[in-house]
Design goal:
This protein is of the alpha+beta class. It is built from four helices and eight strands; from the N terminus they run H-H-E-E-E-E-E-E-H-E-H-E. The protein is 28% helix and 27% strand. A hairpin with a 2-residue loop joins strand 3 and strand 4. The protein is globular and about 45 Å long. The chain starts with a helix and ends in a 6-residue tail after the last strand. It binds flavin mononucleotide.
């Protein structure tokens, strides 16, 4: 009841970085494996396709969350935060999660159908992040306002990988 009471979007972030344990917990809450015997996750996914990937964009670069080993895999070492969204606060916040669908894991449906399913699946992951942030006093906002072609190019995604939404996370406050 408390985290539901405190869940909110916020667009003012301090530039303070998240402790590694907090980032670890955030990612597990988002899309971690909570049933190792089946490999199922903290969020549902249609037909258990698990087509969503969570990428983490920080000042240090771009990382892929690998839930099977609960680790961040380095993808790029550039700071591309300015491309993670078109709003000003995005580039200064310490963490932007980017929810990416791998359409190649979704069978033979039409691309639009796959994208609709991935938007729904992303909603559950994003809400997990909202509730974790509420529990930890972190600020967060889910975002659709993204120049997706520019971000997909900067992240060097494969053509079948599509950015669905992104979510900014950090401590509440103002960047300098
Ligand atoms: C699918 C979706 C896309 C959104 N995109 C953005 C966005 O690009 N930028 C932003 O600042 N807020 C975005 N929001 C956050 C909403 O503006 C916010 O949830 C709404 O104002 C209600 O506020 P609350 O989350 O505090 O209840 C988005 C929300 C959803 C569900």
């Amino acid at each position: 009841m408390e985290v539901l009471r405190d869940r909110a979007s916020s667009r003012e972030f301090s530039s303070d970085t998240l402790p590694v344990q907090t980032l670890s917990n955030l990612l597990w809450a988002a899309w971690g494996i909570n049933r190792p015997e089946s490999g199922k996750r903290t969020a549902p996914s249609a037909v258990n396709r698990q087509e969503m990937d969570v990428y983490v964009i920080t000042a240090e670069g771009v990382f892929l969350y690998d839930a099977t080993i609960h680790a961040l895999i380095p993808v790029l070492t550039e700071d591309i935060r300015a491309l993670a969204g078109i709003q000003d606060y995005v580039k200064d916040a310490p963490v932007n999660l980017v929810y990416v669908s791998d359409l190649s894991k979704m069978g033979n449906a039409e691309e639009n159908q796959k994208l609709m399913t991935s938007f729904a699946n992303t909603g559950f992951i994003a809400q997990n992040v909202y509730l974790y942030c509420a529990s930890e006093g972190l600020a967060t906002v889910i975002r659709g306002m993204i120049d997706k072609p520019a971000l997909e190019a900067a992240m060097k995604l494969r053509p079948e990988q599509k950015v669905i939404l992104a979510q900014t996370v950090g401590y509440p406050g103002k960047t300098d």
